[in-house]
Automatic annotation (TrEMBL):
<keyword id="KW-0813">Transport</keyword>
<keyword id="KW-0472">Membrane</keyword>
<feature type="transmembrane region" description="Helical">
    <location>
        <begin position="174"/>
        <end position="201"/>
    </location>
</feature>
<feature type="transmembrane region" description="Helical">
    <location>
        <begin position="147"/>
        <end position="168"/>
    </location>
</feature>
<keyword id="KW-1133">Transmembrane helix</keyword>
<feature type="transmembrane region" description="Helical">
    <location>
        <begin position="213"/>
        <end position="236"/>
    </location>
</feature>
<comment type="similarity">
    <text>Belongs to the major facilitator superfamily. Sugar transporter (TC 2.A.1.1) family.</text>
</comment>
<dbReference type="InterPro" id="IPR005829">
    <property type="entry name" value="Sugar_transporter_CS"/>
</dbReference>
<dbReference type="GO" id="GO:0015149">
    <property type="term" value="F:hexose transmembrane transporter activity"/>
</dbReference>
<dbReference type="GO" id="GO:0016020">
    <property type="term" value="C:membrane"/>
</dbReference>
<feature type="transmembrane region" description="Helical">
    <location>
        <begin position="242"/>
        <end position="260"/>
    </location>
</feature>
<keyword id="KW-0812">Transmembrane</keyword>
<dbReference type="InterPro" id="IPR045263">
    <property type="entry name" value="GLUT"/>
</dbReference>
<feature type="transmembrane region" description="Helical">
    <location>
        <begin position="122"/>
        <end position="140"/>
    </location>
</feature>
<feature type="domain" description="Major facilitator superfamily (MFS) profile">
    <location>
        <begin position="1"/>
        <end position="267"/>
    </location>
</feature>
<dbReference type="InterPro" id="IPR020846">
    <property type="entry name" value="MFS_dom"/>
</dbReference>
<protein>
    <recommendedName>
        <fullName>Major facilitator superfamily (MFS) profile domain-containing protein</fullName>
    </recommendedName>
</protein>
Length: 314
């Protein structure tokens, strides 16, 4: 069955426009970038996007591509990198893959029959698809940070409810159905926030130079955490029994606090404006990093200029 969507993707991919940024910045094909933008936006008003890409192209010419090691060592990019890593961890260590990988076993453990558990698992997948579409519509209205806070907060609440339902399932028969509702609600809030927001935030925190290295570190973090949850959850379930979701509850609380205190809103902000937000919180970049940032406005070593950018952007 997995062959079917793969074939469908192969047939549909030629119809997809190329990335406008790739066409404009990497290939320097402005006319093709305009056409791709018009197709994406379903509008002829794309000059604002073109001007932003033109500014990014000028910045890239003065900005060297940096390696993963250089990125890790860079004091000026340490906070954006930390945010990118924690956002990826908030996705995988939320406990969502415990539901995706072991949902049928969780539902039978909550008191459902094998047949009922399988239908509930189908419900998990269906809700994930449906709510992801809803998340796409909400993303540019509510903002990335806001959606992530709602998503992580909702997952925290329902992870507690799932634990309570597991503890009292033997006392009240109908609690098993309530446990299913709590689990499906857990998936709903994941789709609203942590399901997609970490990938967008990571891409929007970095300009062209450090972005490839940052995305590489983010993907590595994401899959290591995914592997840890998939490997360790059966052991956790054997040791913790009905309390198995409490470690995820604690982690979700930490991720919510971190997002509230440290993660900026990137909606409708350019790379220069986002960089200015971070520059207000750090000291001037060391001189040995000047070759990384060049004269890009977003990473200028001129603190006064950065302060003015920050004021206007806020």
């Amino acid at each position: 069955l997995a062959v079917v969507p793969a074939i469908l993707q192969m047939l549909l991919l030629p119809m997809c426009p190329e990335s406008p940024r790739y066409l404009f910045i990497t290939k320097q094909r402005e006319d093709e970038a305009r056409r791709a933008l018009r197709k994406f936006r379903a509008s002829n008003h794309v000059e604002e996007d073109i001007e932003e890409m033109r500014a990014e192209q000028r910045a890239q010419q003065a900005e060297a591509r940096i390696s993963m090691l250089q990125l890790i060592r860079s004091s000026s990019l340490r906070m954006p990198l930390c945010i990118a890593v924690v956002m990826q961890l908030s996705q995988q260590l939320s406990g969502i893959n415990a539901v995706f990988y072991y949902s049928t076993g969780l539902f039978t453990g909550a008191g459902l029959t094998d047949s009922q558990a399988k239908f509930a698992t189908i419900g998990v997948g269906s809700i994930m698809v449906g709510m992801t579409l809803v998340s796409i519509m909400l993303m540019d209205r509510a903002g990335r940070r806001t959606l992530h806070l709602y998503g992580v907060g909702g997952m925290f609440v329902f992870s507690i409810f799932i634990t309570i339902a597991m503890l009292i399932k033997d006392i009240l028969d109908w609690i098993s159905y309530l446990a299913v509702i709590f689990t499906l609600s857990f998936v709903v809030f994941f789709a609203v926030g942590p399901g997609s927001i970490p990938w967008l935030i990571t891409a929007e925190l970095f300009s062209q130079g450090p972005r490839p290295a940052a995305m590489s570190i983010a993907v590595l973090t994401n899959w290591i955490a995914n592997w840890l949850v998939g490997t360790c959850f059966p052991l956790m379930r054997a040791r913790l029994s009905s309390y198995v979701f409490l470690p995820f509850s604690a982690l979700l609380a930490i991720f919510w606090i971190f997002t509230y205190k440290r993660v900026p809103e990137t909606k409708n902000k350019t790379f220069e404006e986002i960089a200015a937000l971070f520059r207000r919180k750090i000291n001037r970049a060391p001189s040995d990093e000047s070759h990384i940032y060049g004269t890009q406005p977003g990473y200028s070593s001129n603190d006064t200029q950065g302060g003015e950018i920050a004021k206007t952007s806020l």
